[in-house]
Amino acid sequence: MKFLKEGGFYRTSDLALATVISLFYPIEAIDKQDTRRAYFIFKREEGLDELIEKYWRGELRVEPKMFFNQIRVLKVRLYGCE
Fold it and tell me: Which residues contact 38 (CB under 8 A, 6 or more apart)?
């Protein structure tokens, strides 16, 4: 299954998924144009589809402290002053 669309970027508004992806791939941007929802944007890179598939199938194992710390980083980027 391919999650990546043409254009070279993948975007998600799912905070948990974005947190997991950002442990392995840098966030390129955060789209806050929709006042009700923000989208985390990742550059299309090899292995991203597989990571997303494993996330949805429940096949990923992430160290809990790393996940918690990373979700805090994303929230700062999301709600912090930019």
Answer: 13, 30, 31, 32, 78
